[in-house]
Amino acid sequence: MPEVMVKPHEIEINEYESGVLVCTAYGSPPPKVSWNITGLQSNVTLKQTQTVVIEKPLQSHSNKSNFDNKKPVNVRNVTKISQTLYLNEAHGADNGYVVCIAENIVGKSRDSTFLRILSIYTPPNIVDMEIERRFFWCIKYRITGVPPVTKSWYFNNQPLNMSDTIRDLEMANQVKNDYETEGCLEIQRATHVNDGLYTLIAVNSLGQFNRSVEAQFHKDVKQLIRPTRLPKGLPHPPHPSISDTITGEPEETTRSQKVLNFTE
Description:
264 residues, mainly beta, Immunoglobulin-like, 3 domains, four-stranded antiparallel sheet, 2 helices, 16 strands, transmembrane receptor protein tyrosine kinase activity, signal
C-alpha cells in the first residue's frame, strides 16, 4: 500500500494571497499522485518530482554469510514522488479540505490539508443548485458572499409562500466560516401542482445574484403498486396498470390487462 503525507496539515492565508502545499508519496510500484482540486476557484499550478530511494529491511541473522558481509536481505526499490500545489490568488470560496491521493496496483491512500482563506467582502454567488430526492424533494443550494447574504425564493416568478410542507432549511456547515451558506428548499408531498420554475435570489450590500431550476416532480415519482388481499368471496377491483399475474391459477387475459387472482 502506498504511503502519502501532505504538509502543512493546515494553512491560513488571506484572500488573493499565495500558498504552497506539498504531497509526498512512497510506493512500489511507483504510485500515481493526484490532488482533488475539482471546483477550486483559486489559480492552481502543479509541479511533480520523482526520486528512487532504497528501503533496507533488517538484516537476517539466519543468513550468516550475508550478515558477515553486511549485505542486506530482500532489498527493494521504493519510489518517492512529491507533487507541489501552488495556490495563487487564493479565492475565499475554497475554504475547506484539499485531498491528495496516492494510488498503485497495491492500493490507494490519501491525506488532506485544511485550507483556511480569510475573505474580504465579496458579492453573492449561488455556486450550486440541484434537485435531490430524499424522504422528500429537496432543491439543494450553496451560496457564497461576505457580508452574509439574505435569501428569497420565487415560484413561477411569484414570491414563494413557505408552509409546513415547503420550508427553507439551512444546513450545518462543516467548514466554519461566514463566507458560505448551504441549505435545502424542502418540498414534502410534491405533486404536479408544485411543478414549475424555482428561483433563488441572494443579496448582500455588494450586489445580487439569482439562479433558477425547473422542477417536474411528478414525472420522476415511481409509483409502487402493492396488491391488497381481499376477503374471500368479494369481487376483485380492476388493476389495469399491473402487468403480471400474482399467485393462483392464471386466467385468460388480454394484451391490455391481466387479472389478479388471489386464492386462500
